[in-house]
Design brief:
Blueprint: E1 6-10, E2 12-13, E3 16-17, H1 21-28, E4 35-39, H2 45-57, E5 61-66, H3 71-84, E6 88-91, H4 96-105, E7 108-110, E8 115-117, E9 122-124, H5 127-140, E10 145-147, H6 156-166, E11 171-173, H7 180-189, E12 193-196, H8 198-201, H9 209-221
Parallel strand pairs: 1-4, 1-12, 4-5, 5-6, 6-7, 10-11, 11-12
Antiparallel strand pairs: 2-3, 8-9
Length: 222
């Protein structure tokens, strides 16, 4: 792990891929952010494939984050990740069927843990239970965990710090990171990565998305 967590830029807003995601990435393609992601809805698969292909041509590492909870919906999202050739599948609840699919296609799998519901998603449950669930997922073959830290109905700062310290695997803290204060909290928790999506589209970190990404990257290195 590097000194600072990796920024995963999500071209998403309210847990949905932005309709202008391609155009936004085009303006940011040469930014220092290495990791980029989309949600499984609402843009059609052929547009997703085009955008993921473009990201890869620009040397980016790609992820699809699937906000789904039933096995049928989660498998459909995983199959979309395979179709799009993404490097990572984030989200879904853990299912053996999805883990096997990711293993066969060389996709790194980072499922949600806890009781996750709604869209935009919220997270409920005890920290101990989430740690136990995460370790079970990892034992079964998951590469890492997608933790909806700031969507937690309890104390998100405590969750993030305790979870990362007790789970020996890559953890991505995802959702609702919309201030430098929260970025600093994430840095102290020291996960592998964290996502920012909607906050960029709402200009919490400056003007154009490309400028905001640079601002966040500069802050991470400060």
């Amino acid at each position: 792990m590097t000194d600072a967590p990796e920024l995963v830029v999500m071209l998403t807003h309210n847990d949905r891929t932005a309709e202008n995601a391609y155009e936004v990435f085009e303006q940011c393609a040469d930014s220092p952010a290495l990791y980029w992601g989309l949600k499984e809805k609402p843009i059609p698969p052929h547009r997703m494939k085009e955008l993921f292909s473009y990201m890869k041509r620009k040397g980016k590492i790609t992820g699809l984050e699937v906000v789904a909870y039933t096995e049928k919906e989660c498998v459909a999202g995983a199959e979309l990740a395979v179709e799009c050739g993404t490097d990572m599948l984030m989200g879904t609840m853990f299912f053996d069927s999805i883990n096997s699919l990711c293993t066969r296609h060389g996709i790194k799998y980072l499922p949600f843990v806890g009781t996750v519901s709604q869209r935009p998603s919220i997270l409920e449950g005890s920290i101990d239970d989430m740690v136990e669930e995460a370790n079970h997922c990892l034992e079964k073959g998951a590469w890492g965990i997608d933790l909806l830290g700031y969507r937690y109905t309890g104390d998100p700062v405590k969750l993030n710090r305790e979870f990362v310290s007790r789970v020996d695997a890559p953890v991505c803290i995802a959702g609702s990171i919309n201030s430098y204060e929260r970025i600093d909290e994430v840095k102290k928790a020291a996960p592998w990565s964290f996502t920012i999506g909607g906050a960029f589209f709402e200009h919490y970190f400056g003007g154009p998305v490309s400028e905001q990404i640079q601002n966040v990257c500069n802050h991470l290195r400060a």
